[in-house]
Design goal:
With 133 residues, this protein is an all-alpha fold. It has one domain. Helix content is 72%, strand content 0%. Helix 6 packs antiparallel against helix 7. The radius of gyration is 14 Å and the shape is globular.
Length: 133
């Protein structure tokens, strides 16, 4: 069973993601991210990275400040306590309906350990910034 906060997050973000991927060549974008992952297997993001293509993709897919502000501290903790596999599981609901999401979920699955490490770092920064850790 996935994380209920990821479920709501993915449902709310779906329109934004589909719009983004339909206005950007999804194959090229995923290829670029996968090349970055291969070249930087131990990457840990910092504040300067958020403006890069990879930083934007990671942030675009794993975080939404407006969504986070609607959550209680407990809701935020539930969201942050889940692994990336819960996120991938929630994307799976849309894999058969949207080819863009299928490709995206495939990328996350292929590089789940890399994304887990990046997400763990992001989670620590987010919780520290909010005084929850």
């Amino acid at each position: 069973m996935g994380n209920p906060v990821w479920k709501v997050f993915v449902a709310e973000q779906m329109e934004i993601w589909l719009d983004f991927f339909r206005n950007n060549h999804v194959e090229s974008y995923i290829d670029m991210v996968e090349k970055f992952i291969r070249l930087h297997p131990y990457y840990i993001p910092d504040e300067n990275d958020l403006g890069t293509d990879t930083g934007n993709l990671v942030k675009r897919l794993l975080w939404n400040e407006n969504f986070a502000t609607k959550l209680s501290d407990k809701g935020l903790m539930v969201w942050m306590a889940s692994p990336v596999s819960d996120f991938i599981e929630e994307l799976g609901v849309y894999r058969h309906e949207y080819s863009e999401i299928n490709r995206l979920a495939g990328m996350f699955s292929r590089h789940s350990l890399w994304f887990e490490r990046v997400y763990t770092h992001m989670r620590k920064v987010i919780l520290t910034d909010r005084g929850l850790q």
